[in-house]
Design brief:
This protein is α+β, with helices and mostly antiparallel strands and about 260 residues long. The chain folds into 2 domains: about 170 residues, Phosphoglycerate mutase-like (Rossmann fold), CATH 3.40.50; about 55 residues, no CATH class. Helix content is about 35%, strand content about 25%. The protein is built from 10 helices and 14 strands. Strands 5-4-12-1-13-14-11-10 form an 8-stranded mixed beta sheet. Helix 1 packs parallel to helix 3, helix 7 packs across helix 8 and helix 8 crosses helix 9.
């Protein structure tokens, strides 16, 4: 079985839609949709993902079902009770005397690199971030829904791999978001999600592809074939959005810090 994870186009987060650039990106993605072989399509309930999907669905004549668990990974942490976390998220805004809650995967590199628990498959579950937020609950809800979905397609989770109840040569396409894509891949690959959240830059409308491998009969794993592919933008002469990145050098004040 083949899974495509497609991030939404350049986002207008305030209005949960696409910028003008995002619409151009989604239109260029649609030009390659037939060659991608989208198969069964599913999408996040959020507008920016649905507006991205609309271009490819119209081009291919397909429809997509909304899956609520494909929404952007919503886990947050409350840093008010932890001086350690206040160092991990130093630019957190305040409401009055209290810090606002913070998306869990947006910490600074120095903190992450000096706390190895975030890099192990189970260590992150016992981390300071998990202690003061809903990270575990949100992640487990996502992966339980993902595994139930895969079981319906013939692949049942067992001991970190998937038992093949029924061979499936089809393609599944998820139109979704950066954070949830990394969380999904971390579960399929049995790695900490923090590794992917902080190491991948999946630009808007990028295509990530993973496919089952069944080297032993009845036992399948997932292998990534392409990560964050933007060939459709290159073909259309459109520069990738910077929405997935932070400043390349700190002195560049025009790029996100």
């Amino acid at each position: 079985m083949r899974i495509l994870l497609i991030r939404h186009g350049d986002p207008d987060y305030e209005h949960d839609t696409l910028t003008e650039k995002g619409h151009r990106e989604a239109a260029l993605l649609a030009e390659t949709a037939e060659k991608l072989g989208l198969g069964e399509c599913f999408m996040s309930p959020l507008g920016r993902a649905q507006h991205t999907a609309a271009y490819s669905l119209k081009k291919t004549g397909k429809t997509a079902r909304v899956l609520d668990w494909l929404r952007e990974f919503p886990a947050v942490t409350d840093i008010n009770f932890s001086e350690e976390l206040q160092k991990a998220y130093p630019d957190t805004e305040k409401e009055g005397d209290h810090f606002k809650k913070r998306i869990v995967w947006d910490m600074v590199p120095e903190y992450l690199s000096t706390h190895p628990e975030y890099w192990t498959v189970d260590g992150w579950r016992n981390s300071e971030v998990a202690k003061y937020g809903d990270l575990i609950e949100v992640y487990d809800n996502l992966t339980e829904n993902l595994d139930a979905f895969l079981a319906e397609k013939g692949y049942v989770r067992e001991n970190g791999h998937y038992r093949v109840d029924k061979e499936n040569k089809g393609t599944i396409t998820f139109f979704c978001h950066f954070g949830v894509t990394c969380a999904i891949l971390s579960h399929l690959w049995n790695v900490s999600p923090f590794i992917l959240w902080h190491s991948f830059g999946l630009a808007p409308t990028s295509v990530t592809e993973t496919v089952t491998e069944e080297r032993e009969q009845g036992i399948a794993g997932f292998r990534g074939l392409r990560i964050g592919d933007l060939s459709h933008l290159a073909l259309g002469g459109e520069e990738p959005s910077f929405a997935c990145r932070f400043c390349e050098v700190y002195s560049n004040t025009e790029q996100r810090h």
